[in-house]
Specification:
Chain lengths: 198, 198, 198, 198
DNA sequence: GATGAATGAGGATTCATTCAT
DNA sequence: AATGAATGAATCCTCATTCAT
C-alpha cells in the first residue's frame, strides 16, 4: 500500500478529534493553535494535512456525513411494530443526546461560516439530511417521507430547545408525546384507509 | 446644553438595525467596524451606547424578547375552531419565515457566544421561550403545554432545516402535515375522552 | 472688574484640583474624561479653559512654581542657629512628604511628556528649582549655594527612594543623618577658617 | 525541526534593545509598534516573547536588576583610602551618567505604571536598591549603611536634577562637594572616636 | 514529514478633541 | 458658558498562515 493510505487515515483521525472542539467553541472562536495543541501536534502539521482552517472545517462536516452514527439500525429492524421501532430509535437518541447536539451545532456553524447561498449549493448538509432520512425510512419501515421529515425537524428542534433551556424541557416527555401523537395519527390513517376500503 | 438625544430610544434604534447583521454574519464574523458602517455611525458612537460588542449582542437578545412579533394574536382569537387557529398561526409563520429564522439563528449564536452554562442561567432565552409558549396557549386556546412545546420544537427544527436545505424542504407541506397530525391526535383524544365519559 | 478675573480664577481652581490626579495616575494614564468627572464638569468645559490636555498639564506645572509651599519660611527665620533652622525645614518636609512627592512625580512626568530637550529650554522646572533654592538660601541663611543644591538633590532622591521602597527607608533617620553630616561639615569649615585667620 | 532559536537568549536581547526606548519615551508613550519597528521585528514576534506590553516592561525591570553595571568594583578595591575609592566611584558615575539616568527614569516609570502599593510589594526595585547598597558597602569598605543610603539618595537626586536642569547643575562640582562633606564627616567621627578612646 | 518562530493584517477598544445645541 | 454626543485615528493584541530548519 502506498503512503497515501497512512496520510489519509491520519487526516481522518485528526478530524475526529476536532469534532468536539468545534462543537464546544464554535468555528470562529476556535483557533488553529488551540486545535493543534488539543491534538498534540504543531500548527505546521495541521497545515500539512489541511490547506486552511476553512478546509479543515469543511472536511470535518463532510466526514460527519459518512460517520454512521445510525449503526443502531440493525437492532431496530427486528422489532415487529412501528411503535416499538420508534421507541427504540428515540431511546437511542436520548442516550446519544450529547453527540446529536454537537452534530446540530456544527451544522449551524457550517451554515453561518459558509453563508446561506453556498450552504444550499454545497451538497454536504443536504447529504447528511438525506442520509438520515433514508436510514429512518429503512429502519422505521415507514414509507411516508413527509412524516420522516416531520420527525427529523421535531428532533432537531427538540435538541435545540434542550441546549437553550436545559432540563426545563424534558427529553423523555417530549419524545413520548411525539410517539403518541404519531402513532395515533398512523392508526387513524389506517382506520380511515380501511374504512375507505370497506 | 447638550445635543438633545433620547439616549435610550436611540440605543434601541441601533439595536434594531443590528438584528439583520448578526443574523446574517454571526457574532464572531461581524466586526464592530462593519456594524458601525452599516448603521452609519462611528465605532466611537457604538461604544457610547454599548460598553462592548458582547454587551451590544446581549442587549440585542434581551430586546428580542420584548418585541412582540406575535402581535398577530388578535386576529386568531376570533377564529372558532382549533384547526382554523393553528392554520392561521402557521400562515403567519410562513409569511414571516425570514424574521423567524433570524431569531432562531441569533438564539443559537447567543448560545455559542455565552457558553452552555451561562445561557441556561441567563433568563433571556428562557424568557423568549416562555413568552412564546404562553402566547400560543392563549392564542390557540390549547391548554396542553406539552403539545405547545412539541409544536415549538417542530417549528424551530423546520426553520433550521429550511436554512440548510432551502426549498428542498417544503414549508407549506410540512406545516400542513403537522396540522393534520395534531388535529387527528386531538380529535382522537376527545373521542377517547367522550368514550370514557359515556 | 472684567469677567477675565473670574475666568482666570476658575481656571486656577480647576488646575489645583487636577494636581493630585496627575500625581496619582501620571499624564498618559489620566484621561480628560476622568479629569472632567473628578472636577465635576464636562469635557467641553475643560476645553473651554484649556486648549488641550498638554496645555492643561503645562499650566499645571507652571502653576506649581508659584504655589508657595515654602510659606513656612517665616517660622524658620526666627530660629537662631543653622542647626535649628535645618531641623525645622526637615521637620516641615517630613510633615508634607506626600505633597512633596507629588511635586517630584509631576516634575518627572513633565520631563517625560515634553522630552528632554524641551524641558531644559522650558523655564518651568528650572524656575521651580531656582525658586526653592532661593527660598532655602533666605530661610536657612546659608550662602553656599552648592551646599543648598546638594541638600535639594538629597531630599529629592530621598523622596524617590521612599516611593520605591516605602518605609524600608526611614525618612527620620536619613534626615537626621544628613543634618549631622552637614553641621559637622560646616563646623569643620568654620574651624578651619578660623585657623586660617589665626 | 523548528527554527533553531535560543528563546531565552533572544528574549534578553530584545529586552536589552528596549531599554533605551522606554527610558526615552516612557512606558505609556511608547507603543508596541514603535518597539517592534525599533527592534526590527513584527509586533507578532514581540508577543511571541512577551505576553503583553506590561509583561515586557516588567521583565525589563527585572532584567535591570541582574545587569551588574557595578562591575567596576574590582578597580576600586585596590585603592587604599576611602577618599580615593569614593572619588573613583563618582568618576564611574560621571562617565556613565546617561545609563544611570535611564535606570532612574525606568524605575520611576515602573512606579507610575504599577501603582505605589504594587511597587513596594514587588521585589524588583527593592532588589536593585539592596543590590547596589551591598555593592557599595563592599566596594567603598564603608560599613555605615545609613551613610551608603544617604549617598544613594543624593546620587539619584542629582541625576534627576541633571535631567531637569541640564548643565545648570554641575555633576563634577556636586560630586566633589559631596566627597568633601562626607570625608569631613568621617574624619570628624574618627577624631571623636579616638578622643573617646584616649 | 514536522516544527514553531515569524509575520502583519485586522479585531476590539480607547480617548483627545470637536461641535450642535 | 456649558454640555455630552459624536468622531476616527491610534492602541494593544490575536491569529491564520508561511517557511527556514
Amino acid at each position: 500500500m502506498p503512503k497515501i493510505v497512512d496520510h489519509d487515515q491520519y487526516r481522518r483521525e485528526l478530524l475526529n478529534q476536532c469534532f468536539d472542539l468545534f462543537a464546544e467553541q464554535g468555528y470562529a472562536a476556535l483557533t488553529m493553535r488551540q486545535i493543534a495543541q488539543a491534538l498534540g501536534v504543531s500548527t505546521g502539521t495541521l497545515y500539512h494535512y489541511f490547506s486552511s482552517k476553512e478546509d479543515l472545517f469543511e472536511q470535518l462536516v463532510a466526514d460527519m456525513v459518512e460517520q454512521d452514527i445510525y449503526s443502531f439500525a440493525a437492532e431496530l429492524e427486528k422489532l415487529p411494530t412501528f411503535g416499538e421501532r420508534l421507541e427504540a430509535a428515540f431511546g437511542f437518541l436520548e442516550r446519544n443526546e450529547a453527540r446529536c447536539r454537537q452534530q446540530t451545532l456544527i451544522s449551524i456553524e457550517f451554515y453561518q461560516q459558509q453563508g446561506a447561498d453556498k450552504v444550499q449549493q454545497n451538497a454536504a448538509l443536504k447529504q447528511v439530511s438525506d442520509h438520515v432520512e433514508q436510514a429512518l425510512v429503512d429502519v422505521l419501515k415507514l414509507e411516508d417521507r413527509r412524516l420522516i421529515r416531520l420527525l427529523m425537524c421535531f428532533v432537531d428542534g427538540l435538541l435545540m430547545h434542550r441546549m437553550f433551556e436545559g432540563e426545563a424541557v424534558s427529553m423523555t416527555e417530549q419524545l413520548a408525546l411525539m410517539r403518541h401523537v404519531i402513532t395515533t395519527y398512523l392508526d387513524h390513517q389506517q382506520v380511515r384507509s380501511q374504512g375507505d376500503v370497506g
